[in-house]
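Bug report (template v2)

What were you trying to do?
Predict the complex of my protein with adenosine-5'-diphosphate.

What happened?
Run completed; filing so the output is reviewed.

Input:
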Amino acid sequence: MKELALHILDIVNNSITARATHITIAIEENLSRDSYLIKVIDNGKGIEADMIDKVTDPFITSRTTRKVGLGLSLLKQNAERTGGYLRLESTPGKGTTVECCLGLSNFDRPAIGDISGVVAMLAGSFTDIDFVYSHHTDVGQYLFDTKEIKNALDGVPITDPSVRRFLVEMIDENLAEIKIIR
Ligand SMILES: Nc1ncnc2c1ncn2[C@@H]1O[C@H](COP(=O)(O)OP(=O)(O)O)[C@@H](O)[C@H]1O
Ligand SMILES: [Mg+2]
């Protein structure tokens, strides 16, 4: 089964296609509620109201190159299999929020996978987009913000491969500190 980090990459790709300039990835692990909540919030072009219900249908896409859209419907299926859900909220011209909840301890919940690699790759590849990644656990919270990173890099380009390796290590260390569940 596909790891959650790759599902998140799919959802973020939709935001990029929708010309978002600010994208937030927020993950919240909650042991007492046994929930694993993922939100992707963008300020892209949004989805018209009559399309909202249709886009989680595996046979709907607004692209013309392939007839079926798969990103959202696959994640929705995976979420529902764990007793969770996927919800879409969107305002045309303002942006879109994808909220996906999975059963934290459910046997069918995919592992988070390479989230540090995905975030570092996005930050280093789409330099005109501000990315915020927050991860909450019962131990604490980690917040990654490309705006802060770019300031701290002090002129060293975020596209530099050594920067990507540094970011992956930094994110992994911070995620280990808050003891994220893999
Ligand atoms: N963040 C978003 N902003 C605007 N439209 C979106 C967004 N996410 C999804 N959509 C719409 O939903 C459709 C289905 O998305 P998805 O399931 O990822 O399939 P695909 O990207 O292959 O079309 C997209 O084609 C697009 O029209
Ligand atoms: Mg997509």
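What did the reviewer find?
The longest strand covers residues 22-30. The CA atoms of residues 163 and 173 lie 15 Å apart.
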